[in-house]
Write a sequence for this structure.
């Protein structure tokens, strides 16, 4: 199983706010920044959030990230149909000396 | 704008070696770290390993005994070899640039499906 723990699924209706959690440990999220990736079917994963709460150019401000202790969250407000995708959290792990991913959360827009 | 493109056989026989190459365009490979990530069908992303332009490497411990990465700065390419493959190695394989400041993969290649089957 994955080093970081995410719920396998999440859902919401258009316009709603949804959050996706990511749980780690003192060797990864507890001491390093968190990254979030959006993965649409058939496409390459896309960087959504870097350094825990920063958005790359072009990513809408509907997407936001946060962290508390050894857990992190991705929030999506004003949910839209095109947000339906798989979302992955990632962080550097000081024990592994490498990056670790969450298992991914499939977001469904009802 | 840096772009990455994976290439290699889409079908590999069990027990043989899987070989993939990632070609970097729009920028020099002689900076940063370069990484391979895979996604088995119906499963999540798995980091395979990374290589620095100097040639230093670090592999996922779960795959370490079967992984070899190399880099050719003259061709702006880096490569992955996975030995003794089984059906469990069937996956979409992605190459990506990895920042030296964290789990920052950007950009990614489009990915290539490798199927292990006789």
């Amino acid at each position: 199983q994955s080093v970081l723990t995410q719920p396998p699924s999440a859902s919401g209706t258009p316009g709603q706010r949804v959050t996706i959690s990511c749980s780690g440990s003192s060797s990864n999220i507890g001491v390093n920044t968190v990254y979030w990736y959006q993965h649409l079917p058939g496409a390459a994963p896309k960087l959504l959030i870097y350094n825990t709460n920063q958005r790359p150019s072009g990513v809408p401000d509907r997407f936001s990230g946060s962290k508390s202790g050894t857990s992190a969250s991705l929030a999506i407000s004003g949910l839209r149909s095109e947000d339906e995708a798989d979302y992955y959290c990632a962080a550097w792990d000081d024990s592994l000396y490498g990056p670790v991913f969450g298992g991914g959360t499939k977001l469904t827009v009802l | 704008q840096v772009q990455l493109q994976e290439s290699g056989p889409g079908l590999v026989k069990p027990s043989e070696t899987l070989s993939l190459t990632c070609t970097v365009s729009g920028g020099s490979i002689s900076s940063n770290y370069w990484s391979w990530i895979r996604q088995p069908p119906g499963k999540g992303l798995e980091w395979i390993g990374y290589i620095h332009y100097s040639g230093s490497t670090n592999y996922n411990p779960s795959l370490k005994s079967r992984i070899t990465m190399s880099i050719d700065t003259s061709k702006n390419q880096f490569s992955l070899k996975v030995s003794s493959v089984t059906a469990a190695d069937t996956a979409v394989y992605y190459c990506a640039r990895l920042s030296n400041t964290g789990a920052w993969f950007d950009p990614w290649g489009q990915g290539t499906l490798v199927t292990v089957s006789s």
The longest strand of chain A covers residues 85-93. The CA atoms of residues 21 and 73 of chain A lie 4 Å apart.
